[in-house]
Amino acid sequence: MNDFASTPKLVLLPAVDVADGKAVRLTQGEAGTETNYGDPVDAALDFARQGAEWIHLVDLDAAFGRGSNVGVLRKVIKQVKGVQVELSGGIRDDRTLEAALESGASRINLGTAALENPEWAADVIGRYGDAIAVGLDVRGTTLAARGWTREGGDLWTVLDRLESAGCSRYVVTDVTKDGTLKGPNLELLRELTSRTPKPVVASGGVSSLDDIAALRDLVPLGVEGAIVGKALYAGAFTLAEALDVAGY
Q1: What is the DSSP string of 128-158?
Q2: Which residues are catalytically annotated?
Q3: Are 192 and 200 spatial neighbours (Cβ–Cβ below 8 Å)?
């Protein structure tokens, strides 16, 4: 236990995914698999009360190109003062990026745009540095784009390009694991951290406190944090319990 106690903490980012104004969870990122969990503001405030330092906030409608929840997202960010927010979903051009930055979010997650518009993504990374993370959503080693509905190229080719652009952080989701409660893809994370010195935030599949412990073991390799979603909403454990295992 002493070894574990000396392992640096794993930053936890409880997820609030918003569709049609409600907090929802998807299974494997597929539209139509939503489970409704009520008011996003209530969900975020509950996480804040339990000790969250970060919240991962996603506009699913914007990610799928079917609308926007910008008003709800701003309300969430305003209500959770003192908690940093990583904002994701549908940020694909200067207009949506500037709106996201003005919302009060601490960090913006680029997804599809980093795959489909690499020149713009490189320019944004150059301008905003640490405020920009790039989401790498993968099936095997093939990237997924447009709300995971299209293929977005080879993971390692895109990673090399983003490294050259100076990307400061990656948010890595195994799409096949997301929302399934089947455990994170530790092999993918080990491989990825061996190919970049930049911090990696893991996403997808966390189902138990043992999974949190396994991810914390990867912190020395470069896994900085983990996004936790369905397990919290399904009551597998509380955020307070997870934070304890993560080293808070």
Answers
A1: HGGGEEEEEEEETTEEEETTTTEEEEEHHHH
A2: 17, 137
A3: yes
Q: Which pLDDT tens digit goes with each residue over 35-90?
A: 888 999 999 999 999 999 999 999 999 988 899 999 999 999 999 989 999 999 98
Instruction: Please report, for residues 118, 144, 205, 240, the alpha-carbon distance to residue 28 in angstroms, rounded to integers and kept in the order given.
Output: 25, 11, 9, 26
- Cα 86 from Cα 201, distance rounded (Å): 11
Q: Can you spell out the DSSP letters for 65-99?
A: TS---HHHHHHHHHHSTTSEEEEESS--SHHHHHH
How many whole angstroms separate alpha carbon 56 and alpha carbon 31? 19
* 2-6: average pLDDT: 64
* Residue 144, Ramachandran bin (φ over 0: left; ψ between -120 and 50: alpha; else beta): beta
Whether 115 contacts 165, CB under 8 Å: no
